[in-house]
Structure formats: structure tokens, C-alpha cells
Automatic annotation (TrEMBL), chain A:
<dbReference type="InterPro" id="IPR052157">
    <property type="entry name" value="BCAA_transport_permease"/>
</dbReference>
<keyword id="KW-0472">Membrane</keyword>
<keyword id="KW-1133">Transmembrane helix</keyword>
<feature type="transmembrane region" description="Helical">
    <location>
        <begin position="72"/>
        <end position="93"/>
    </location>
</feature>
<dbReference type="InterPro" id="IPR001851">
    <property type="entry name" value="ABC_transp_permease"/>
</dbReference>
<keyword id="KW-0812">Transmembrane</keyword>
<feature type="transmembrane region" description="Helical">
    <location>
        <begin position="46"/>
        <end position="66"/>
    </location>
</feature>
<feature type="transmembrane region" description="Helical">
    <location>
        <begin position="155"/>
        <end position="174"/>
    </location>
</feature>
<comment type="similarity">
    <text>Belongs to the binding-protein-dependent transport system permease family. LivHM subfamily.</text>
</comment>
UniProtKB/TrEMBL annotation, chain B:
<dbReference type="Pfam" id="PF02653">
    <property type="entry name" value="BPD_transp_2"/>
</dbReference>
<keyword id="KW-1133">Transmembrane helix</keyword>
<feature type="transmembrane region" description="Helical">
    <location>
        <begin position="6"/>
        <end position="25"/>
    </location>
</feature>
<feature type="transmembrane region" description="Helical">
    <location>
        <begin position="103"/>
        <end position="120"/>
    </location>
</feature>
<dbReference type="InterPro" id="IPR043428">
    <property type="entry name" value="LivM-like"/>
</dbReference>
<feature type="transmembrane region" description="Helical">
    <location>
        <begin position="152"/>
        <end position="171"/>
    </location>
</feature>
<feature type="transmembrane region" description="Helical">
    <location>
        <begin position="238"/>
        <end position="263"/>
    </location>
</feature>
<keyword id="KW-0812">Transmembrane</keyword>
<dbReference type="InterPro" id="IPR001851">
    <property type="entry name" value="ABC_transp_permease"/>
</dbReference>
């Protein structure tokens, strides 16, 4: 195979791997924004929290309960950590965000920004800013697979496939099932849905929990790939915002497709002009804004 | 009347502050107060939440630093260069961002500011992680030696006053009235025949330029420009200063900046707990007193503008 094509494919795969996180995070943001009209700035911090919970479950929980040999590994963490993040998210919604729904959405953006600072500050204090590698990578996921054009780490392949499944299931539930229909109706006209006897505040809380749980899940998936650090969500959240502006916040599928494609584009940019890889998503955002201000998949207005 | 009290306190403080406080600290206070007041021109009087103002503050610091250090220009020209560069950046960012409203506007300014941050990180003339160091203060008009802290202080105080008066003037002009009309009800302003986008853009450019004035001055005070000034967390801090003091009030941002900078100064010993404190203040402001300190005072005394 032509080495150039091989390089493009390889960087494309790695880019797709980053795209996983863009897709899952912007999906969570889209779900939350759809129902609550809240831009959750804390999404990056909750992603970081998910990664740290995986690390804590593996390295610290055993010591805390006096069983130094107990390491809660990756697979249990993949379920436990997102649930814990979701619970934390629901507490935020129930006790803080709920007070702001009647106001300009800017206030909830600022509130979640404050939460981000608090979480980041706490984790920097206890774990310092530089980051730790996650030690709990399961044995079955070590090693590489031959993709024909490159040797690709098994774990990264798993992450790509797993997240595609998660995104698809989320899309299916929201767009094609009865629960999803209620959710969507709740976003259109909460008063009317209430009249049908549906507990809208509870639904909102659960949705927020689900969206933040997705962020936590992305965090656990990221832990074995990137090092677990208090600032891992800080720069990602801005990329996610750009993804959201490009995709347009109206659609669930739009968030996922945009997320994966931008990861891919970013990866391929590395082949041609590496210094631009950091900024290519923002430049795309500028172009999309000029051509189609409401985003690629966005509703007008 | 109360407004007069605020003016007297402010001018009195400006006149005597360096004799009982560390001058560099007061200069830092003034730079951030001007930055917050410039930011407030946008959020408080036009209703636009920019989450990227650090780009203008930090970007101007780099430009001013480069002009002063590498080209050897006198201090005033350095500051003017930084201010104009920030206004030009503001024009570019503003024309893109006003295509969307509300939280989208915020996200776009944030993303564009991140491009500026990556430029500052990667371009050869910005010094990367180290930033620009050893920016010379030079001689003002060839007469006043700015290495003297007190001389430097009065120079900074003068810049602050000029910037602050400019903002006061803008807010109380017919132009400022139109901006407030846009903030209150944009469709109505549009239907009255105002070119809303042009007013918003002009407000954005003015706000960015004044933020740049603050950033250039800060570069001269501390003699360096660093990545921290351009980082998005700085954009967040200036929002907090404005929110804490009172959005849409004249004196609020100054009060807010004084509180936040003083807090950071005295809590610097506790490391990252400062961030936790700042974050908690943010949450408390949003939940408990959205009018901010000056805004609440104005409400208690039933004064419309403070």
C-alpha cells in the first residue's frame, strides 16, 4: 500500500478514536440542551470525574475499606462510575440548576462553569495537576489487532465499537421509542405533558442524570488511553462546544455524526500540517458559521 | 448623590492608594477593573455574553509586549498598538459571533478565543510556555522614568481613568441608549429601524479594544505577557468580577474586580483551593444575588443607575 495512504488511514483511525469522545460528550450536551435548554459547561469536568472514579475504584477503594488487595477493575468501573456521575448530575440538577430554569440560559451556563472550577480545584488539590496513568487496563484488552494498514491497539478498537453502539442506542431510544417521544414532547411543551400526568420534573432530572452519565462513561473509556488528570476535561469542553456549533444543537444524530467526523478530520489534518490539528475544528467552525450559521444539522432560528 | 459618593471614593482611592498599599498590587487591581468594566460594556449594557474576552486581554498583552521589547517603541505607542490589535481582533470575532445569539454566541466567542490561545502557544514570537518576559517599561514621553513604581502607578491610574470615563461616556450617550434598548428587547430595537447587528458589532469592538487597553497596561506593569492572560479561565474570571460586582452597573465591575483580585492575592498561599473558592463564589452569585453587590445596593437605595 502507498505509504501516504497508509499514514492517512492510520491517523484517521486515531482521529476516529478522539472522535468517540467528541461524539459521546456532544451527545450528552445535546440531550441535556434539548430537554432543559441548559448548556452544561460542567460536562468536561464530569468526564474528568468519570475517569477519576475509575482510577479511585481501582487504586483507592480497597485501601479505604481495609482490603489493600481489592482492585475494582475496568469492567465494573464501566458501569459503576457512570452511575455515580449520573447521581452527582441529578443532585446538581435537583438542588442548583432547577432554581434557574425561569431565567436566561446564560445563568445556568455560568453556574455550571462555577461547578467546573470547584471540581477542577478539588481534584488538583488531591491528585495534583499533572495526571496519573490508569493502572486497571483489563488483560483481555492488551495487545494489538492487525487492521491491514496498521497495528491498532485492541482497546482502542473496543472503544470505537462500544461507543458507536452506545450512541446508536441513545439515538434509538430518543427518536424511536415511547419514552423518547415523551422526552421530546416534554421539550416542546412541558405544561401540556404535565397535563397528561407525566412527572416532568422527575423526567428532567433523569435526563440530566443520563446526559451526565454519558460524560462519565466517556471518562471511564478515556482513562486507559489518556492519562487521568484534573484538567483533561478543561480543554476538551471547548472543542465540544465547537463541535456543537458546527453540528447545530437541534439533533441527536447530528451531534454524533459531527463528533466522529471532526475527530477524523482532525486526525487527517495531522498528516498534512500537524500544527493546525489543534485549531482545525475551530477553523471549520468559522467556515460553517459563515455559510450556515445554524449548523450543519441545526434547526433554523 | 450615591453615584457622587462612589466617584469620590474611587478618585480618592486612586490618588492615595500607593502610599498605603503595594503599588504593583494596586496597578493589578486597576488593570483588572478596567478589563471587567470593558467586559461589562458588552454583557451589562448590550446583553451579549462573551466567553472569550481573555483573547483580547491576553492578545493585546502579547502585541504590546512585542512592540515594546522587540521593536523598542515607547510605552504609549506599545499600549496603543495592543489596544488597536485587540479592537481588530474584536472586529473579526464579533462579526462571526453576532451571527448567533445567546449561549451560541458565548460558545462561539469561547471557541474563537481558543484559536488565539493556540496561536500564543505555538507561534515563534510569543515564547510558548514561557511567555514574553523582560518587557521594558521605558520612559514616558522621554521625561518620566516608568521604572519608578510611583510614576508608573500614576501612569496606570491615568490610563484606568481614561478608559473608565470612556465607558461611562459611551453608556450615557445616545449610542449607549440604543445598546440598552437592544439588551432589553432586540426585536423591538430592530423594528424601530436600528441596524442592530452594526450596533452590536461596534459595542463588541469597543469592548475588545478597552479590554486590550487593560491587557497592554498589565503587560507593561508586570513586564511580561503569559498564556494565563489568554486562557479561557481568565475569560471566566472577568465574568465573575462583573457578575459579583453587578452586571449593567457602572461601578459594579470595578468593585467585583477589586474583590476577586484581593481574594486571589490573599489566598494565594492555599494553592488550588483558590479555584474552589472562586468557583463557589460563582455558584453563590448565580443562585443568591444575581444583581451583584453594587446592583443590590442600587436596588436597596432605589437608584436606577449606579
Amino acid at each position: 500500500m502507498d505509504p501516504m495512504i497508509r499514514l492517512i488511514l492510520a491517523q484517521g483511525m486515531l482521529g476516529l478514536n478522539n472522535g468517540v469522545f467528541y461524539a459521546m460528550l456532544s451527545l450528552g450536551l445535546a440531550v441535556i440542551f434539548g430537554l432543559l435548554n441548559v448548556v452544561n459547561f460542567a460536562h468536561g469536568a464530569l468526564y474528568m470525574l468519570g475517569a477519576f472514579l475509575a482510577l479511585i475504584l481501582y487504586s483507592y477503594v480497597g485501601q479505604w475499606i481495609g482490603m489493600a488487595d481489592l482492585h475494582i477493575g475496568f469492567w465494573p468501573a464501566l458501569i459503576l462510575a457512570p452511575l455515580l456521575v449520573a447521581c452527582f448530575g441529578m443532585l446538581i440538577e435537583r438542588f442548583l440548576l432547577r432554581r434557574l430554569y425561569k431565567l436566561d440560559p446564560i445563568y445556568s451556563l455560568l453556574l455550571t462553569f462555577g461547578i467546573t472550577l470547584v471540581l477542577q480545584g478539588l481534584f488538583i488539590n488531591y491528585f495534583n495537576a499533572s495526571g496519573t496513568p490508569y493502572p486497571g487496563m483489563p488483560e483481555s484488552m492488551k495487545g494489538v489487532t492487525n487492521l491491514g494498514f496498521m497495528m491498532f491497539p485492541k482497546y482502542r478498537l473496543f472503544v470505537i465499537i462500544f461507543s458507536i453502539v452506545v450512541c446508536f442506542v441513545t439515538w434509538y431510544v430518543i427518536e424511536r421509542t415511547r419514552i423518547g417521544a415523551r422526552l421530546r414532547a416534554g421539550t416542546e411543551n412541558p405544561e401540556l405533558v404535565k397535563a397528561f400526568g407525566i412527572n416532568v420534573p422527575l423526567m428532567v432530572m433523569l435526563t440530566f442524570g443520563f446526559g451526565t452519565g454519558l460524560a462519565g462513561l466517556a471518562g471511564v473509556l478515556a482513562a486507559p488511553i489518556y492519562s487521568v488528570s484534573p484538567l483533561m476535561g478543561a480543554n476538551l469542553i471547548i472543542v465540544i462546544f465547537a463541535v456543537v456549533v458546527i453540528g447545530g444543537m437541534g439533533s441527536i444524530a447530528g451531534a454524533v455524526i459531527t463528533g466522529f467526523s471532526l475527530g477524523l478530520i482532525e486526525g487527517v489534518t495531522k498528516v498534512f500540517y500537524a500544527p493546525a490539528a489543534n485549531t482545525v475544528i475551530f477553523l471549520l467552525m468559522v467556515i460553517v458559521l459563515l455559510v450556515r450559521p445554524s449548523g450543519l444539522f441545526g434547526r433554523q432560528g | 448623590m450615591v453615584q457622587a459618593v462612589f466617584w469620590v471614593v474611587l478618585l480618592g482611592f486612586l490618588a492615595i492608594a500607593p502610599f498605603f498599599l503595594y503599588p504593583v498590587f494596586v496597578m493589578q487591581l486597576l488593570c483588572f477593573a478596567l478589563f471587567a468594566a470593558a467586559f461589562n460594556l458588552l454583557i451589562g449594557f448590550t446583553g451579549l455574553l462573551s466567553f472569550g474576552h481573555a483573547a483580547f486581554f491576553g492578545g493585546a498583552a502579547y502585541v504590546a509586549g512585542h512592540v515594546l521589547k522587540v521593536w523598542g517603541f515607547p510605552p504609549i505607542l506599545g499600549i496603543i498598538a495592543g489596544t488597536l490589535a485587540a479592537a481588530a481582533m474584536g472586529w473579526v470575532v464579533g462579526s462571526l459571533a453576532i451571527r448567533r445569539q445567546g449561549i451560541y454566541f458565548a460558545m462561539i466567542t469561547l471557541a474563537l478565543a481558543q484559536i488565539v490561545y493556540f496561536f500564543a502557544l505555538q507561534m515563534p514570537f510569543t515564547g510558548g510556555e514561557d511567555g514574553l518576559q523582560g518587557i521594558p517599561r521605558g520612559n514616558l514621553l522621554g521625561i518620566f522614568n516608568l521604572s519608578d513604581p510611583i510614576t508608573m502607578y500614576y501612569f496606570v491610574a491615568a490610563i484606568f481613568l481614561v478608559g473608565f470615563l470612556a465607558i461611562y461616556r459611551i453608556v450615557h450617550s445616545p449610542f449607549g441608549q440604543v445598546l440598552q434598548a437592544i439588551r432589553e428587547n432586540e426585536p423591538r430595537a430592530l423594528s424601530l429601524g436600528y441596524n442592530v447587528d452594526r450596533f452590536k458589532l461596534l459595542a463588541f469592538v469597543l469592548s475588545a479594544g478597552l479590554a486590550g487597553l487593560a491587557g497592554s497596561t498589565k503587560a507593561l506593569v508586570f513586564q511580561f505577557a503569559s498564556l494565563t492572560d489568554a486562557h479561557w479561565q481568565m475569560s471566566g474570571e472577568v465574568i465573575l468580577m462583573t457578575l459579583l460586582g453587578g452586571m449593567g452597573t457602572i461601578f459594579g465591575p470595578v468593585v467585583g474586580a477589586f474583590i476577586v483580585v484581593t481574594l486571589q492575592h490573599f489566598l494565594s498561599g492555599i494553592g488550588s483551593w483558590v479555584q474552589v473558592v472562586i468557583g463557589a463564589t460563582f455558584i453563590a452569585c448565580v443562585l443568591l444575588f444575581r444583581r451583584g453587590i453594587v446592583g443590590e445596593i442600587a436596588r436597596l437605595l432605589r437608584i436606577s443607575s449606579l
